[in-house]
């Protein structure tokens, strides 16, 4: 989905969310006042916060789609992450407010007066919220909008809250047992938990989380479709908003290629990756693969075996031996899950140095991306 269609889809879904939630606020607030139900009134307030969330999504989307300028040459896409964080904070605040009011009603209970009409309105509200929540989450996933996904998740929790209110109202009408304040406390806790989780997910986006291995594998596969490329490594993707990535990568190519051939190769890779994945390649580094010296090929095989036989080592790449100046270059990736990474790095380094004492060893512990 291109950026313009993505923006239209997000704005349309947000507008639907605002209109639906305002309608629910009016109906639920009316029912809450008539029946003297704190649970229904809090539910209405929660719907009002959902309408505000949708409004924030609209504002965030419009700001995020502003054209790059001198101060922000890579665009404003990250504003969407901030709007998602604001929505998560609103959800958390709504949950805390509901919790406080519910506890007050437990300490100072008030008698509610439900009618069958009020129950029907609450039941309809539950159905509307389920449909709205699924719709917003679906559009959010298609457009990779954390704000819409957060709003959709919140709508589903609202449906659960309304269902709990409906059940407690039915129990009260049939048995005289009032459970709505207790039910509201339980639901409030779940809303707070959901808000904190949404906040955590949005912070992960802002901090820079790992891109899925499936996506990076596809991009590397695209790069390696060039005949002269024997490997693609160190693919780093910087996010400047949903679906807006600028990347860099190292490619391994034969040491016999000329500067002109390398230049044309880099242009082809950049074009191919952008057309297929919509990702801008900001830089393409070169690892030179020796193809003319059997001694170096033997050294490469031996060193690769030494490195990979150690626990926690994921990969060795970027190997190049300068026989004339007695220099060995390579990158080694050690799993982040391995507790003693630094110790393992030093152990591998010492083992290689023992096998090739006459060489200067330039070994880098690369990032596991």
Explain briefly what this protein structure is.
The protein has 369 residues and is α/β, with parallel strands linked by helices. It has two domains: 3-207, Cation efflux protein transmembrane domain (Alpha-lytic protease prodomain-like, Up-down Bundle); 213-366, 2-Layer Sandwich (Alpha-Beta Plaits).
Would you mind describing this structure in some detail?
The structure is a single chain. The protein is an alpha/beta fold and 369 residues long. The protein folds into 2 domains: 3-207, Up-down Bundle (Alpha-lytic protease prodomain-like); 213-366, Cation efflux protein, cytoplasmic domain (Alpha-Beta Plaits), CATH 3.30.70. It is built from 10 helices and 6 strands; from the N terminus they run αααααααββαβαββαβ. It has helices at 3-35, 38-64, 79-107, 116-143, 146-175, 180-207, 213-223, 259-277, 294-308, 341-355; strands at 231-239, 245-254, 280-289, 313-322, 327-334, 360-366. Helix 10 (341-355) links the parallel strand 5 (327-334) and strand 6. The protein is elongated. 34% of the residues are buried. The model has no long low-confidence stretch (mean pLDDT 85).
Question: What percent of the residues sit in helical stretches (DSSP H or I)?
Answer: 55-70%
CATH level 3 topology of the largest domain: Alpha-lytic protease prodomain-like
Give, in spatial order, the strands making up the sheet with the most strands: 1-2-3
Order of helices and strands: HHHHHHHEEHEHEEHE
* Number of alpha- plus pi-helical segments: 10
Report mean pLDDT, rounded to a whole number. 85
The count of strands amounts to 6
Beginning-to-end CA distance, first to last residue: 26 Å
Please compute the radius of gyration using only Cα atoms.
Answer: 29 Å
CATH architecture descriptor name of the largest domain: Up-down Bundle
Note the beta-strand portion: 5-15%
Q: Would you state the CATH class of the largest domain?
A: Mainly Alpha
* Largest sheet entry: 3 strands, mixed
What overall form do the CA principal axes indicate? elongated
Number of domains: 2
Q: Could you give me the name of the CATH homologous superfamily of the largest domain?
A: Cation efflux protein transmembrane domain
Low-confidence segments: none
Based on secondary structure, the structural category is alpha/beta
